[in-house]
Automatic annotation (TrEMBL):
This is Nuclease SbcCD subunit D. Residues 273-356 form the Nuclease SbcCD subunit D C-terminal domain. It comes from Curtobacterium salicis. It holds the Pfam family SbcD_C. The gene is sbcD. The lineage of its organism: Bacteria, Bacillati, Actinomycetota, Actinomycetes, Micrococcales. The keyword Isomerase does not apply. Keywords: DNA recombination, DNA replication, Endonuclease, Exonuclease, Hydrolase, Nuclease. One of its GO terms (molecular function) is exonuclease activity. Heterodimer of SbcC and SbcD.
Amino acid sequence: MRILHTGDWHLGRTLLGADLLEHQAVFLDDLVQVVRRRAVDLVVIAGDVYDRAIPPVEAVRMLSHVLERLAETATVVVTPGNHDSAVRLGFGAGVMSDRVRILAEPARLADPVLVDTDDGGGPVAVYGLPYLQPDMVRYALAPVPDEPLARSHQAVVGAATDRVRADLAGRPGTRSVVVAHAFVGGALASDSEQDIRVGGVDRVAESTFDGFDYVALGHLHGPQRVGSGDRIRYAGSPLAFSFGEQNHTKSVTLVDLAADGSVSVELLPTPVPRRLADVRGSIEQIESGVFAADVDAWVRVAVTDTVHPERLYARVKDRFPHALAITHESADAPERSAARTVSATSDPVEVAADFVTYATGGAPDGVELAILRDAYESAAAALAEQGAR
């Protein structure tokens, strides 16, 4: 059985104000051609289909159109990620054709999509684990009523996979594919994934997914495997969504699932409609053409003259029409302390603690840190609940 594993499309996303929908359309057109050309049987989309809970209309139309095209030749299974609204993404799932299945309900995560094959290995059970926000599912997934699971990703994802294994045990001779949106094991994050920490922890142990033939993960944007083999993998995002991802080789993952449950993997590079690059130099270097190779790229430009050049913005844009960020960073200025550098992967509680230290002259103590963490996680849970409506 041939599977194409993808995810983290983030339809509707922008990059420093630049609309990515046109570039996402290029990827989706290429994806449809790959599925047809490589005779793919099953397409799995592992969450973060949209970039936000209420996506723009064009993004919704784009998803509808690509699912229709993919379903002409393959079965398609979709699960929601932490950026999606599971309710909105899963709307109408019950009346969709057997070729497109959106698995968005935590209560039904042990109900697989069964895909028949002609390879002699029997059917394949495809289980979808949507993004599981601990505060929203720790009661629903608890094995004992009124005894909630621990408030952690490990607890709720572990309970979910236990349910899946229990169902799979009643299906002898059936191979298994689990599609999940989570932060697993020793995988490497980039600077554009949304923080999902609860109780200060966001990771799930690799062993949580023991017993499955292939685990198709979403959430992390760099394509990578978890552990020593190819059984557990992140497909990564199809486009670079931050300058921190400019050196990624973006791809989709083609998986051949053999009759005995073993897998072989091929990474298929995705189109790069416009690459990303950093440019750093004096205004004289920039205007001289030294960086001509980056003229057609989306660039982040740092001008290093000691004195702020006249008409800085206009002169840079004249050379780099696709510049998304232009800053003046004098080469002889003191280096900024790394402790004050904040990115999308910074711990929000640590950032808040740094601010308290800066504002009061003293670091927060243990009690104050606990208050900061509770406040952050309450706000994050409220946003997640709002997105789920």
